Amino acid sequence: MRIAIIYATTEGQTLKIARRTAELCQAAGYEAELLNAVAVPADFIMAPYEAAVLLSSVHVGHYQAAMSTFLNDYKDDLTAIPNAFISVSLSAASTDQDDVDGLREVTDDFYKQTGFTPLYEHLAAGAFRFTRYDFFKRWAMKLIAAQKGIDADTSKDLELTDWPALDAFVKDFLAAVARTSDAA
Ligand SMILES: Cc1cc2nc3c(=O)[nH]c(=O)nc-3n(C[C@H](O)[C@H](O)[C@H](O)COP(=O)(O)O)c2cc1C
Which of 31, 122, 169, 175 could be a cystine partner for 2, CB 3.0 to 4.6 Å? Predict the structure, then answer.
């Protein structure tokens, strides 16, 4: 059984989460194929896959355009199989109600715009990847960290991803995939 894992990333944390997702799929006996949404081959088809996991991160209130394009092109194929969306952001790590509501709004707008609403959803906390930022981004992100009460050392990355929560979500999704194929 093959599972497609399509990701969009700007600084790399979503790729790291996509790789962990692939490892878990493989550990459960699936063939997992990682595909970058910015490099989808023109002849790509979903037909060989029995399930799909989509991952994309939030930057300035938007998911990557490449993921919107992918969903616009493949939403009909995706809705025919078990599918999951893993959203990656800093808001997911926040307990501030404005952050929680903002992330919900950005994500619901994304589903509305693309016409794709996933069967399963996980809101994963991402990372401050200071080592990947240019001078201005590093400065702006240090300020955002400070607003959240974090005195960040910008010489290294600061990961907020809750890996056990991610693992639990992917395992639950794989259990649902197994139930679907048993029922078929
Ligand atoms: C320029 C910039 C803008 C961001 N905007 C948001 C935002 O609007 N909301 C949010 O929750 N996180 C925001 N983030 C945090 C990212 O979602 C987080 O760093 C995530 O881990 C990025 O994933 P990636 O490395 O796969 O691109 C922003 C990060 C950067 C660098």
Answer: 31
